[in-house]
Specification:
Order of helices and strands: HEHEHHHH
Number of domains: 1
CATH architecture: Up-down Bundle
Largest sheet: 2 strands, parallel
Shape: globular
Distance between the termini: 25 Å
Radius of gyration: 18 Å
């Protein structure tokens, strides 16, 4: 999937509906305390494989994209809690229970194979090194141009309303799944079983997250959930946990 085209299409997507806000003794709460944690694969349990250039670039790409999900969900959670007194728990739960683990799995692979920026063909100016602590990675800054453009477009959309923030979640997860499918195929073709297991783990998480955002939209009265965004984002075939 070409993320550069995604950024352009997202700018024109869907209706902006204000929702949430309010007084009372606490914020309006969307979602619940659903647990998204899944046991992460131990990529060090596998031998070292001979990675192709495609495999190395795919790891760099997914590292950027998993960071995008964490950064975006964290930002939008805090934005709506502050500006509309609405707590969108899907955003915080997925960011803190799942995306942090996804980022670590990809970084473990990058460190296992000691992949350096000069080995990659898809990044511009590096924003961090592979040894930068995870909590010091620069939020909202990426060294893959397409990922940067996607983040900027989705942040703008997600601030518009609670509905938009949940729709952004649908978009991120569909994009993630679409990007992972060919990377899983490439890892299988090169025999890199550690990459296959890691990428399949990321995809399984994205399936769960998609349905969490779908439920969030339905709780607002959007009966079609993620499908309200159009065919591109409508995936009833995704497995449900």
């Amino acid at each position: 999937m070409r993320l550069i085209s995604k950024a352009a299409s997202i700018a024109a997507v869907a209706i902006l509906v204000g929702c949430g806000g309010g007084g009372g003794n606490g914020p309006v709460v969307i979602g619940d305390d659903e647990n998204f944690y899944q046991g992460a694969p131990n990529v060090y349990a596998y031998p070292q494989y001979e990675l192709t250039q495609q495999n190395k670039d795919d790891l760099a790409f997914m590292g950027n994209e998993e960071r995008l999900a964490y950064d975006l969900y964290t930002y939008l959670y805090n934005y709506h809690l502050t500006n509309s007194n609405t707590e969108i728990r899907q955003l915080s739960n997925i960011a803190n229970q799942s995306e942090t683990t996804h980022i670590k799995v990809v970084r473990d692979l990058v460190n296992k194979y000691e992949i350096e920026p000069d080995e990659l063909t898809i990044i511009g100016e590096p924003v961090a090194s592979r040894t930068t602590p995870q909590d010091e990675l620069p939020a909202g800054k990426y060294d893959v141009e397409h990922v940067q453009e996607l983040y900027d477009a989705l942040e703008d959309k997600g601030k518009q309303s609670v509905r938009d923030a949940l729709e952004v979640g649908c978009m991120v997860e569909v994009t993630d799944i679409n990007d992972l499918n060919p990377k899983i195929d490439a890892a299988n073709a090169s025999g890199a079983k550690d990459l296959v297991e890691a990428f399949e783990f990321l995809r399984a998480g994205s399936y769960n997250h998609y349905w969490a955002f779908d439920r969030g939209l339905k709780s607002l009265g959007i009966s079609d959930g993620c499908c309200s965004l159009g065919d591109e984002w409508c995936h009833p075939e995704y497995p449900q946990r």
